[in-house]
Specification:
By secondary structure, the chain is α/β, with parallel strands linked by helices. It has 3 domains: 4-155, Orthogonal Bundle (DNA polymerase, domain 1); 160-322, Beta Polymerase, domain 2, CATH 3.30.460; 332-568, TIM Barrel (Alpha-Beta Barrel), CATH 3.20.20.140. The protein is 43% helix and 14% strand. The N and C termini lie far apart (52 Å).
């Protein structure tokens, strides 16, 4: 189940990929790419645009692409895309998602070695003949081989940031089925794990059989894989397995508790229940007289503090709950500002004013506009001259008043030698500096550690962005001594970021826990490049909660005055 915007944007992006593999006209490729980016970031649905004339008003969408959108609206397909797929099947185009496999290299693999999919790619890079290609050495092949492993691992599970919106939309449709009283995400989605194998949903209804019949007929269902008396498993049109369990209202709390925790966690909970002479049934824990009315009642009967869903992994939370020592975890409502946001000054799709208005509508007190520094050429990084021009715009908007305080910031590249991409006299003029690694990922661990720690030691740096550089399912973290990074951040009073971007969630949960246990502050940011990205804060907060992060650990839960005081502590 995708919105029409996402579906069209994906098709246009895939057409651009395919045209690159076919070595077609660059102007044509860029046209599809631009249209895809603009459509994916639109706040309005394409369905609200009536006819070719209105569609053509969308930036990057001219007459030709408008006609293709209308064709899809009428037929569910785009004939040009279907023709392109005959030349470049999806199995081939998706190889561009593998780090190190660009269009030029893939063209060579296709023409010279007949690569068509992931299996033929693996055979080719394992063959000595691949080293006969100009510019291809053993080191590059080793890197691609590792990237293939990461890619295949990512294909087996969905990213949380992709699965959660889909699951939420499905849950909302289930809630509209007559007779459904409540519905909730369960399993790894409710625990906010960074990847999930499938979607689990539980619903409460008296007419379970009828609800399941209606569920199987919903528009997103491609195929019913299995149906039982109180559950159904379906495959969605997007190819995602979704399980729905429907229980009577009196069973709901027990079933929800039972279907949320990890396997190891549930095993421990059942042992505790048995020791308390509570009945453990397939539906959940029973107290002898009946089922519980809430999860809180269940944990109270077990002699445990209530354990939030994100912590139910058997990582020490049960022991902490037994002693009443679980922390009060940060909540999305605690966030008072976003400290990592991009605008059209670099590679963002919205203006500073648009970002300010949206963040103000979220109830934030402040937002840091942190466009890229000059070394990020692909991201249209700002020269010093452009940075100062941007500062003038920030000052003007602040003077006008838009209901939120804009902080003049930058995401500054940490260069390979550990220096920063702007001189100190320029950095001192900024309200907020998040320093990040955007290149030279393959450095040896000691050099990468020295590089990052050197940046954290700079008094003008406030936080380290996406600290390990990983991309979920695409790129491993770079080699770095994270303990040394945490220690340096602690010694210099700097924050480490939990980046909510859909591919990152970096720091990951376990490292976030390690950081806060060491006394290091966290910022939970979206790294938003488009207005809809600002809503992704829930994934950063979910990751923080999995990492036992409290409100007091997170810098951007501070009021504006508290934040400015914290930032001032870093001045040289």
């Amino acid at each position: 189940m995708q919105s029409v915007n996402n579906e069209i944007a994906k098709i246009f992006s895939r057409i651009a990929d395919s045209l690159e593999i076919l070595d077609e006209n660059g102007f044509k490729i860029n046209a599809y790419r631009k249209a895809s980016r603009n459509i994916s970031s639109m706040p309005d649905s394409l369905e609200e645009f009536d006819g070719e004339r209105e569609l053509s008003t969308i930036p990057g969408v001219g007459k030709d692409l408008s006609q293709k959108i209308i064709e899809h609206r009428l037929t569910g397909k785009i004939a040009y895309y279907e023709e392109i797929k005959k030349q470049v099947p999806d199995e081939l185009a998706e190889l561009l998602d593998i780090r190190g496999v660009g269009p030029k290299f893939l063209r060579i693999l296709v023409k010279r070695f007949g690569v068509t999919d992931i299996e033929s790619l693996k055979e080719t890079i394992a063959s000595p003949e691949i080293l006969e290609v100009d510019g291809i050495g053993k080191k590059k092949i080793e890197q691609i081989s590792r990237s293939v492993e990461v890619f295949e691992g990512g294909k087996k599970r969905m990213r949380l940031t992709e699965a959660h919106p889909l699951a939420t939309a499905i849950k909302e449709e289930i809630e509209e089925i007559p007779g459904v009283l409540r519905a909730e995400l369960a399993g790894s989605l409710r625990r906010m794990r960074e990847t999930v194998a499938n979607i689990d949903i539980i619903a409460s209804a008296e007419n379970g059989a009828e609800v399941l019949e209606r569920f199987a007929d919903l528009g997103f269902v491609k195929e019913v894989l299995r149906k039982t008396e109180n559950g159904a498993r379906v495959l969605t049109q997007a190819g995602v397995r979704t399980d729905l369990l429907v229980v009577e209202p009196r069973f709901y709390a027990s079933a929800l508790q039972n279907l949320t925790g990890s396997r190891a966690y549930n095993s421990r909970i059942r042992e505790i229940a048995a020791s308390k002479n509570l009945e453990v049934s397939p539906v959940g824990i029973r107290n002898g007289e009946g089922y519980f009315s809430s999860e809180e009642e269940i944990y109270e009967s077990l002699g445990l503090q209530y354990i939030p869903p994100e912590l139910r992994e058997d990582r020490g939370e049960i022991e902490a709950a037994r002693g009443g020592e679980l922390p009060a975890l940060v909540e999305t409502e605690d966030i008072r500002g976003d400290l990592h946001v991009h605008s059209t000054w670099s590679d963002g799709a919205a203006t500073i004013r648009q970002m300010a208005e949206k963040t103000a509508s979220l109830g934030y007190e402040y937002v840091a506009i942190t466009d890229h520094s000059p070394s990020s050429r692909i991201a249209n990084g700002l020269s010093i001259k452009r940075l100062l021009q941007k500062k003038e715009e920030v000052d003007e908007i602040n003077a006008e008043g838009v209901g939120i305080r804009l902080l003049m910031g930058s995401e500054v590249d940490i260069l390979p030698d550990g220096s920063l991409d702007y001189p100190d006299e320029i950095l001192r003029e900024l309200d907020f500096v998040v320093a990040s690694v955007h290149g030279s990922f393959l450095m040896e661990e000691d050099k990468m550690t020295k590089r990052i720690c050197g940046a954290l030691e700079n008094p003008n740096v406030d936080a380290l962005g996406h600290p390990t550089g990983r991309l979920i399912g695409q790129r491993d973290p770079y080699k770095v001594d994270i303990d040394a990074v945490i220690e340096t951040a602690k010694n210099h009073g700097k924050a480490l970021e939990i980046n909510s971007s859909y591919k990152r969630l970096d720091l990951k949960d376990t490292l976030a826990r390690k950081a806060v246990e060491a006394g290091v502050k966290i910022i939970v940011s979206t790294d938003a490049h488009r207005i809809p990205h600002l809503e992704r804060i829930i994934f950063g907060v979910g990751t923080a909660r999995r990492g036992w992060v409290k409100k007091t650990d997170v810098v951007n839960t501070y009021s504006l005055s508290e934040l400015l005081k914290w930032l001032a502590s870093h001045d040289s």
